[in-house]
């Protein structure tokens, strides 16, 4: 789910405020809303001061947990990228290139998310430059869309390989993966491009959505259509395909083991069948984890269209807790922020999925740690030798001086 959605006001349009605001506002709604934002919130994005004032523990929770995701994510994703890029890993796992793509997009997302974090968790105008605002909005959704499609891509490849194994061998050639990944990247850029049209830098230096009934209507339709497909339809299809694939893989192995075949044929088929298991297990774990973290975010995002969770009438911050409509919104918003912060974990924790589900990945992690230990040991020994040399020299010198003094005393 596009995290910048969290910055927007649910149902903030002229129609939503009709009946809640003075009718004299009329067509001057945008000007009135901007004045209200400036007067009450100092020009900050409206949701940030509301969250600070009414949900401060929630914003602190987000500040801390996002830092944790950045630390784990940058370290874990770069290690994962190094491992899946190895030639031997590509030979052992036909989906390695897809996993390289997913890891790159996770790193991409986390780098861009820092701008969002500074803006909506610390109130800093980190995207307040015309051009940068629009470019960020496009680049921010690309890795989110691409990751979903990449998981679907190698799931389809695995599905074809196990359902139609002989044709699947031709379909799953490693030369095909770069073309598929490139096609997905081009497609998601096309899908994300309209985001540049919806956003602008306001007078306070913050990247905000443009106002206007037509723009908001277009955005609502476009966003609902694209994100329903990306974050609802595709994960469900991926999950169903993975469940079917792993079921067929185990059934196929059981049938083959019960057949009385020739030794050579049995060995060849059994070996091939076993190769399905690690890759399929990894795909299934990734799919489950991403669905479990994305689906609640998608549901809470959709709930913003309900009237019960829309903005109340314009009023100062301190009065909102006494208004029924604002109380509903504040409760909804607090739950949504918590869910979105936890949901961002799937861009940081993939390394643990890879480690738990893939033996070859665990072996590579062990090899990396062994090399790190050797490097530390060599550095310690080298440092020990260099630090011991002056001490040894001083000790030898003192022994020599002692002998000279003793000989001198004997002669005298």
Question: Any overview of this molecule?
Answer:
With 412 residues, the protein is mainly α. It folds into two domains: 3-357, Rhodopsin 7-helix transmembrane proteins (Rhopdopsin 7-helix transmembrane proteins), CATH 1.20.1070.10; 358-412. It is 76% helix and 1% strand. The protein has 15 helices and two strands. The protein has helices at 14-17, 29-41, 47-54, 56-84, 87-92, 96-122, 132-163, 165-171, 176-192, 195-198, 213-258, 263-303, 324-343, 350-357, 359-411; strands spanning 199-201, 207-209. It has a two-stranded antiparallel sheet with strand order 1-2. Strand 1 (199-201) and strand 2 form a beta hairpin. Helix 12 (263-303) runs antiparallel to helix 13 (324-343). The radius of gyration is 30 Å and the shape is globular. The model is unreliable at 1-33, 265-276, 392-397 and 399-412 (pLDDT under 50).
Helix content: over 70%
In this structure, how is the largest beta sheet organized? 2 strands, antiparallel
User: Strands of the largest sheet, in order across it?
Assistant: 1-2
Return Rg in Å. 30 Å
Report the CATH C-level class of the largest domain.
Answer: Mainly Alpha
Provide mean pLDDT, rounded.
76
Provide a count of the helices. Answer: 15
Output the CATH homologous superfamily of the largest domain: Rhodopsin 7-helix transmembrane proteins
CATH topology of the largest domain: Rhopdopsin 7-helix transmembrane proteins
Uncertain segments? 1-33, 265-276, 392-397, 399-412
Number of strands: 2
Number of domain units: 2
Backbone structural class: mainly alpha
